[in-house]
Design goal:
Length: 354
């Protein structure tokens, strides 16, 4: 039998309850306030942008003539909202450049009004005992799915690197899906953000293992560094790849395999800007008129890969291509494999075009 009611309350409602001692944020069973200022800023940016946040779970009990509400789940979200309203912290530039450094009082009047009117979804329990609330809280924290590596990063970091990774993962998610680089089932577990993160690392620090990715989340948590410039490079590389391979064309080649797409991105990035770890002598200038030639060369590499890896193939495989195949099959995200694949492709393109 249902023991709760679903409602919506505005932020101004919660402010009024809190100011009149009608809202208990920290019952004994709740987690203590552990959010960083950056995490709080990210939540406020979510509210300001009008995006939804998870439901709040509260219980309501009549004490005398007043309704007293106790937060069962969501106290950190509510605490961040109340602290921002009280001017206790500012919005971070990492989350909102327009209102960076603003407290609530500094916001334009229309934004302040929208903030106060923002509605929070609430599941409301009535006259529940302390024991019942403990049971509810335990159940809430039971039905959780184990997080993968990328989801853990997303939960742990709030700063600049995460924002760029998240933004660019979404920006190109349709290309990733339609080209079959990623599946929709992978996207639900943040695969597009994971791929974007590794591509950003490639641009910033050179071609390297995915094991180093978290270092960049840490390095660019509070400082933007070269991320803006790298994002412009990211766009240029994706634009060039799009010219070579529209989605309906790349999906029929081996370059739609995620580790080989990483290689393609690194190769184009190296030709355009030079990437750490790759050989300078294999670089060539990229001009619009070579797009067709690049597609032919890349298609040939893909076809040879299929031919050489076919079980019926009996001829001797050229040694350099054999290494490329090995780098494409074993430890594909290791530094040596990524550098080996990219250098091979760069050299093959330069040899064919020169």
């Amino acid at each position: 039998m249902k023991n709760f009611d679903t409602r919506s309350y505005s932020i101004s409602d919660f402010i009024e309850w809190y100011n009149n001692d009608l809202l208990e944020l920290s019952p004994d069973f709740q987690r203590r306030s552990v959010w960083s200022q950056s995490a709080k800023s990210y939540l406020i940016d979510t509210v300001i942008r009008g995006r939804p946040i998870p439901k709040i779970l509260i219980t309501q009990k009549l004490i005398g003539t007043r309704q007293k509400r106790t937060v069962v789940d969501g106290q950190q979200r509510l605490r961040a909202i109340l602290e921002f309203y009280n001017g206790d912290f500012k919005i971070s530039k990492a989350h909102n450049e327009e209102y960076a450094g603003y407290t609530y009082e500094m916001l334009p009047e229309d934004i302040k009004n929208e903030f106060l009117k923002y509605e929070l979804g609430v599941d409301l329990l009535f006259d529940m005992s302390y024991e019942f609330m403990l049971d509810i809280f335990a159940r809430i924290n039971t039905y959780t799915v184990s997080l993968n590596t990328q989801e853990k990063r997303n939960a742990k970091y709030i700063g600049y690197f995460k924002q760029y990774v998240y933004r660019y993962g979404l920006k190109y998610v349709r290309y990733f899906i339609d080209s079959k680089i990623l599946k929709k089932s992978q996207i639900t577990r943040m695969a597009e953000a994971e791929l974007a993160a590794e591509l950003f690392v490639c641009l910033i620090g050179g071609v390297q293992t995915n094991k180093n990715t978290e270092q960049y989340y840490k390095k660019y948590e509070e400082e933007i560094g070269d991320l803006k410039n790298s994002s412009e490079k990211f766009d240029q590389i994706m634009s060039y790849i799009g010219e070579i391979y529209p989605v309906d064309e790349i999906s029929t080649t081996n370059w739609s395999r995620v580790h080989l797409f990483y290689t393609l991105f690194a190769v184009i990035g190296h030709f355009l800007y030079g990437l750490g770890g790759l050989k300078h002598e294999f670089r060539i200038p990229l001009k619009p008129q070579v797009v067709g030639k690049l597609r032919i060369i890349l298609n040939e590499i893909s076809l040879k890969y299929d031919s050489y890896t076919d079980k019926s193939f009996r001829d001797e495989i050229p040694s350099e291509f054999s290494k490329f195949i090995d780098f494409s099959r074993r430890r594909t995200t290791d530094t040596a494999a990524r550098i080996g694949r990219a250098n091979f492709v760069c050299k093959a393109i330069k040899s064919a075009i020169s």
